[in-house]
Structure prediction request, 228 residues.
Amino acid sequence: MSGWGQIGAILRKDLIRELRTRDMLVSMALFALLAMVIFHWAFTVRGDTDLTYFTGGMLWVTFVFAMLLGLNRSFAQEKDEHCLDGLLLCPVDRVTIFLAKTVGNLVFLLIIQAVAVPVFVLFFVEGGFLEGLPAFLAVLLLADLGICALGTLLATISMNTRSRDLLLPILFLPLIVPLLVAATSATTLVLADGAGVREIGGRLLFMLGFDAVFLVVAWGTYDFAIGE
Prediction:
């Protein structure tokens, strides 16, 4: 089986398992929707409050913490049910496992965003969203790739520790801050000022560089990370 076939097989296994139980998707979706509702009622006590310049921060804080729930649950199941042991015994390159897991986490995050973004637009965006949709989607995809690549690598490192639920946020949150700053500022410019792809080009390039750095780091270290 080719490398792409192996990635597809692992990804299909993860998707089928999650669609049968829906544990991870339900917990992530409930957290994201609850956060949107809380932000809405917390910031709209006064009817004349302009929330457009807070949109980026609210959106990405919600997505990052929702993703932490998903990362913890996905690798906890692999470890506790001994699925990972069987996977490591297969003639599969370790980087292939990383790529499949990253794509799977990306799919789950995109599903949650497909549910949460319409609610977010309804609560916090006052018109003009469709005009900035291409720039918003570019920010979304580049930030999601960085979150999932870094999160998958760190979740693999922390899953063999006793305090994995505590260790993952401690490792993940400081490292993801540069990407979040770029994604938050770009999202705010798109939603509040109607900026296009050209106006946020520098931030998009930074996010692309961030993604590339951690994909290369994972490629070079994943053999050791998953073996330990």
Summary: The CA atoms of residues 41 and 47 lie 11 Å apart. The chain is about 80% helix and 0% strand.
